Amino acid sequence: MRLSLAVLALFAAARLAGAQGVRVGPPTEVARETDPRRFSEPHLAVHPADPTRLLATVFSTALAEAVPEMHASARCSTFASRDGGATWTRHEFALPHCGDPQVAILPDGQTVFAALADFPGIVPARGTWLIVYHSNNGGMSWDDRPTLIGHGHDHPAIAVDLSSETRKGWIYITTHYEWRDGNGQLVSTVFVARSRDGGRTFDRPTEVPATSLHDFGEMPVILSDGTVVASFVEDTWSSPYFANRRAWVMRSTDGATTFSPSSLANDGCGPPPGFQLSALAVDTSDGPLRDRLYFACRQSGGGSVVVTSSADRGITWNRPGVVVGSSPVDADARRVMSIAVNSKGVLGVLIVERRLKARDGCLEASFAASLDGGATFTAPARVSVSSCGDSMVDTIATRMFPTYGDYFGLVTTPDGRFRVMWPEMRAGASVLLTTVIEVDGRAEPPAPKQ
């Protein structure tokens, strides 16, 4: 009876998604690990003018009970495709302790890979290095010598200027950068590294002490005129101990040399429970919502994913925002989100969730879309259900890595489709999967409030 109800629910959800114009394609396998190792935190990039040229990155670790052993085993790989994701060429970097990988493709086809890792022969004073590799052929191969930007970083994120007249092709990498000052106090800045030659070299970085609290740099995006918008959040475990993580954005109109005062994007983000990475996206289409900004986070107290938007380039935001889906408050559920806007101005939200006390421990990925600037969203369409304890390896992976990281691959291709990439455990093997999601219609401005 329970199985029949589940099948009927899936069928009803699929019909509802179809009625709303959201179609999720069948998944295809990119790679698998069987050591056993498991994939985490895939990131995707697509050529700005060619939807067949894709680049992905992911890190994998051994399934070890000891956390230090697991971290030491981490390795990063890239996967390049020139046929729209039908086949992929894998490259593994010889970088110990590699994680937080990111990739980007420039309009001229140059590509960059950035990650945190140890570099053989060099021992940093504290933490792993921020390392960047450059490629001239779409990631099919990489330059022998990388750029080592520094250590003490966390969560690098990449944005590329695709449209401005004076800075098109410039690359910006932001990180959360922290160190101990002369009094032993932990301090932080939002760190921005800039490359003007396709990622071969980087200028002197900019460090922005955003607030008087401890701030975590998160995501950058680029507006149509080249304005850099970078987001950051405050912590909640140091004085004055805010109940929620306040999220902010700051803007630069001079190529990340200087930044404006910060604007509050959301003051209702979690924790609890635990750390949750936020997401930032911008509408780069030629439609009526061009340069509209979107910020997504999980609400505090175990709440749902909520999206705020800004129609004035990040100066003001529609707080408290709009809830995506109807997920109730659940302190035992781990929820991670990624967002992107397609060439028709449609906002897509990918949510990966696992309820830690669920009987079967299943992980579920779903996708919702907004065609009115984040005012409303379609009912979530199911992308995948996985990690249900089919083997002992699956059970270990599910317990130690319930959502396989803090972000997932979500991009939009020049033809207006969304492409998703995520890992699963299937019968003892970690598989990296991808699929295409299509959303009917073009975005229109939200209806004025009555």
What does this structure look like?
The chain has 450 residues and is mostly beta strands. The protein is built from 3 helices and 29 strands. It is globular, with a radius of gyration of 21 Å. Mean pLDDT is 86; it is low at 1-19.
Give me the secondary-structure topology.
Blueprint: H1 2-19, E1 22-24, E2 28-33, E3 37-47, E4 50-62, H2 67-72, E5 75-81, E6 89-92, E7 99-105, E8 111-117, E9 129-135, E10 147-151, E11 153-160, E12 171-180, E13 186-195, E14 206-208, E15 215-222, E16 228-234, E17 245-252, E18 263-269, E19 279-282, E20 293-298, E21 305-310, E22 322-323, E23 333-341, E24 347-355, E25 363-370, E26 381-386, H3 392-400, E27 409-412, E28 418-426, E29 429-439
Antiparallel strand pairs: 1-29, 2-29, 3-4, 4-5, 5-6, 7-8, 8-9, 9-10, 11-12, 12-13, 13-14, 15-16, 16-17, 17-18, 19-20, 20-21, 21-22, 23-24, 24-25, 25-26, 27-28, 28-29
Which properties best describe this structure?
single chain, 450 residues, mainly beta, 4-stranded antiparallel sheet, 29 strands, disordered N terminus
Number of strands: 29
Show unreliable segments: 1-19
- Radius of gyration, Cα only, in angstroms? 21 Å
N-to-C CA distance: 46 Å
Percent helix:
under 10%
Strand content: over 45%
Structural class: mainly beta
Overall average pLDDT: 86
Number of helices: 3
Shape: globular
Describe the biggest sheet? 5 strands, antiparallel
